[in-house]
Amino acid sequence: MRERLIGPPSPRRAGGHESLALLVLADRPTEQARGTARPGDKKGDSMPSLQSVPRVSADVTFMEYGISTAARLLGSAGLDAGQGARVLRRMLSPWGTRPIGKQPEWRSDVCADGSPIEFSAAFSQECTQIRVLVEAVPDRLSTSAAQESALALTRGLITEFGAVDDRLAKILDLFLPDRDPIGFAMMHAVVFSPTGGPEFKVYLNPGAGRGMSAAERTREALDRLGFGAAWKAVGEYARRGFDTDRIVYFSLDLTGGPRSRIKVYFRHYDTSPAELDARMALSLQHETGFLGDFCRALTGSADGVRPQPLVSNLTFTAEGGPTPVSATLYVPLWVHPESDRTVRDRISSVMARTGLPVGGYRALLDHVARRPLSDGRGIHTYASARIRHGRPRMTAYWSSELYDRYPPARYQRR
User: Are the C-beta atoms of 313 and 263 separated by less than 8 Å?
Assistant: First the structure.
């Protein structure tokens, strides 16, 4: 077992200042800012706020792009942009000083086009949270090098922001094997909320090595973490078999306490939203009957999920014990509609029907998009939803789209 992560952080630090939030990222304006949006675009699609959000050029660094975008999102949501800049500088160091380039050197698992940074916002009737997911880009193009970069980032979050690694240290050797590692190593996320400091979590790769299957690795991890009895719920949820309900991520909150979460993520092949909705009833907080309509509203058809498999998770905490406290569905969006404008309109409609802040979502989208929404698809990657005590929560996930629009379907069944 690897030793605890706490230790001296990497001496390689990227410079920068909070003023990066005001950087002009490129001198090429968007079509809409020039007043050349496509004929026939509906009134209101010109998004004049995009005049201050130029298209990203290849010589802009990841650090410049990440901090400036996070600052706009946090400011729009009424959150602490200065705090966000400090956190993002750590999460993007040292690799963030590299220029973005025209093609990804390391094709990240974070976004469908290979971008290593994803922004998202979670909306409830109580508040809006801003989230950033990154994969630390390694110096060398290998999973072993990616492991080193991920561990350096984890150390930095522990020493600089008080992230907690006790549980992660117990399972590191499973997900970061020394021998013949494959796939991605680790992804890191931070959540910014109106109350409290930033909260961190990691996503680990159940398919990290050939010595164990993803299911075996997940079961062993749950057992080491004191959740061995939770495997019964995992097996019941994936009762069609782990080839069809494939375990794809294992995540941990880097926090302590009885509410610190463990999540098991699944990619579901050949299933319907209604079937998943019924299976999610095994969790403590799930309320059935919403997810089928939610999925149809976003994809535009009852069977629209077929081109790209649905994703879901089960969440476990010490308070809930072996029973999942919640289950969440993630609907892939970049392969279904004709454009991101269509996705925006569908999400807006769902949020309006459920009493969530449509204006807040659209304002944040304005700060992410760097092209006309009608000029392609790929900004929206997923939308997730769950309901607790009749109160909905919805999250929109946005690709940085640093390299491509119209990204192809991924994760086809092999």
Answer: yes
